[in-house]
Each structure stands twice: as structure tokens, then as C-alpha cells.
Specification:
Blueprint: E1 3-4, E2 11-12, E3 36-39, E4 42-45, H1 48-55, E5 60-65, E6 68-75, E7 86-89
The structure holds zinc ion (ZN).
Zinc ion (ZN) binds next to loops.
Length: 90
């Protein structure tokens, strides 16, 4: 089964990565972060809209644990560790 690449518009037979431009063809929903973000002050539940923001590479959300406020990114690992993403907290 083929899939149309959103990046280059060509048809790719590989459903994971585009045959032509090697774009990642996984739907964004498959890349959503977990529902809870572990922070030093405790876990924070993420809303659906916050998780969608974090699914984007450049996305970040501000979370609060008591008096502390954190800016959180959900970071993509290299392809060899596909699916293994992690939090960066600042
Ligand atoms: Zn492509």
C-alpha cells in the first residue's frame, strides 16, 4: 500500500519514510507525548492541546508545580532510536 508524502507530494511505497525525500510519514498522533510529564516537583497532567503542541519539534508548553514554573519540550531522538523521545525541562 502506498501513501502520499505531505512533504514532497509524491507517492511513497514505504509507509514510514518517503521514498523520495525521506520525510517521516508517521501521523502526528503517533508521536504524541505521554499524558503526564514528570517534573522535579511532581507529575503534571497534560491536556490534549498541550500534547499536540509538544508533538511538534519546535513546540513547548509552560507547566507549574507549586511555586515552580517549567518550560517543557518533547524532543525527538535520532532515527536509530525511533519512538524513543524524551523530555527536556528548563
Ligand atoms: Zn517525500
Amino acid at each position: 500500500m502506498s501513501i502520499v508524502c505531505a512533504a514532497c507530494g509524491k507517492i511513497s511505497r514505504d509507509r514510514e519514510f518517503c521514498d523520495h525525500c525521506n520525510a517521516d510519514l508517521q501521523p502526528v498522533d503517533d508521536c504524541l507525548p505521554p499524558e503526564r510529564c514528570p517534573l522535579p516537583g511532581g507529575e503534571v497532567a497534560l491536556s490534549a492541546s498541550q500534547r499536540k503542541v509538544l508533538a511538534r519539534v519546535e513546540g513547548a508548553v509552560a507547566l507549574e508545580t507549586g511555586p515552580a514554573r517549567w518550560r517543557v519540550h518533547w524532543v525527538s531522538m535520532p532515527r536509530s532510536r525511533r519512538g524513543d523521545r524524551s523530555w527536556t525541562i528548563g
